[in-house]
């Protein structure tokens, strides 16, 4: 349903969309049913000639059932939602499939720096390619990301991946994604980080293997030490 | 009576027309100051600079220089190197200025502010030794550090010492000045090689700060 509005561009985007769809359907069902009963009762017991209004205390069993029965049914629905949410959370945040490549992502007021592995496909080596506000990925490849923040809390948000992860100063947060769609997509900061927060966007390019190899070959590495960016020790 | 009514009508319409045309003019006049509200968040309300936000004093800089630097940021010639922390902060701010007119307006406003003479914060520089190095700088920036628009050289006098030092360090590390879109910065990247080490940079900055006095 959500992919009608924004494409699902990662292997787990469908899991997150499915969870949102489940919540939408269950909550939508109860919303429509309760509103229908509510307005039905209003209509049925509307003002009638010669019929005085009656005050109901809601203490009788037959009256309390209107609350308790839907309450327990909604709780049953909650079990499904929570079960689904735990599964999705575990898959996206707790599992870490083996990485084919790793990228380093650094948020600072108000730009993103992406350090890509160079031709040796290893991060933390001299041929790394650092780009500001440009992330280049190869489609159908499992990536680990190492997320850092230089100054304040940022949040690395890639709507097309359905990914949002806070970046905390002083910590290196590891996560993963596997792009499934080629094309250009948006990256944004999703945590208020100062006056330039609204302008802290970047471009994600997901390329075919051949296009990505051509891009890597066309870029020259930056001297990261000179750029005041200590090399990150990456455990593969 | 009829004449008085006609005169009143004509006078009222004329006043309304004058007011209607005068309003946009007044707004346009204050455009630079209005835009500067955003810049002031980091550079300070008097554009006096703030080391905490890595924003240098820009008050009273030449309009051509402010405009050129804003355009370098806007077209990515400056502020897109991963080592340029301050520049990367400035880059998104510059793209917020969506038109050339806005860039000119804010540059004009910054130029109209009285030049700040910031207090030095760096220690360990030897101004006497720095004066020897400065002879090379003076060929473009002037003996008194007043800059030279014909050589696209900004004034150094009145700048923050921490900003001058960080700029020299960035040129030296090739963090700044690598874009062919900004040939003057490319020249700076080469010229900074006359300063052999970190101490020489501090020395020449110490000398420039004597020009500010």
What is shown here, in short?
The complex is a heterodimer of chains A (236) and B (213). Chain A is α+β, with helices and mostly antiparallel strands. Chain A is built from 3 helices and 10 strands, in the order ααββββββββββα.
Structure description:
The complex is a heterodimer of chains A (236) and B (213). With 236 residues, chain A is of the alpha+beta class. Helix content of chain A is 32%, strand content 25%. In chain A, the strands form 2 sheets. A 5-stranded mixed sheet of chain A has the order 3-2-1-5-8, with no helix packed on it. Chain A has a 5-stranded mixed sheet with strand order 4-10-9-6-7. In chain A, a hairpin with a 4-residue loop joins strand 6 and strand 7 (163-167). In chain A, helix 1 packs antiparallel against helix 2. Chain B folds into 2 domains: 31-112, Orthogonal Bundle (Cytochrome Bc1 Complex, Chain D, domain 2); 127-211, Cytochrome Bc1 Complex, Chain D, domain 2 (Orthogonal Bundle), CATH 1.10.760.10. Chain B is elongated, with a radius of gyration of 22 Å.
- CATH superfamily of the largest domain in chain B, by name, is Cytochrome c-like domain
User: How many beta-strand segments of chain A?
Assistant: 10
CATH class of the largest domain in chain B: Mainly Alpha
Strand order of the largest sheet of chain A: 3-2-1-5-8
Largest interface by residue count? Answer: A-B, 23 and 18 residues
Distance separating the two termini of chain B: 71 Å
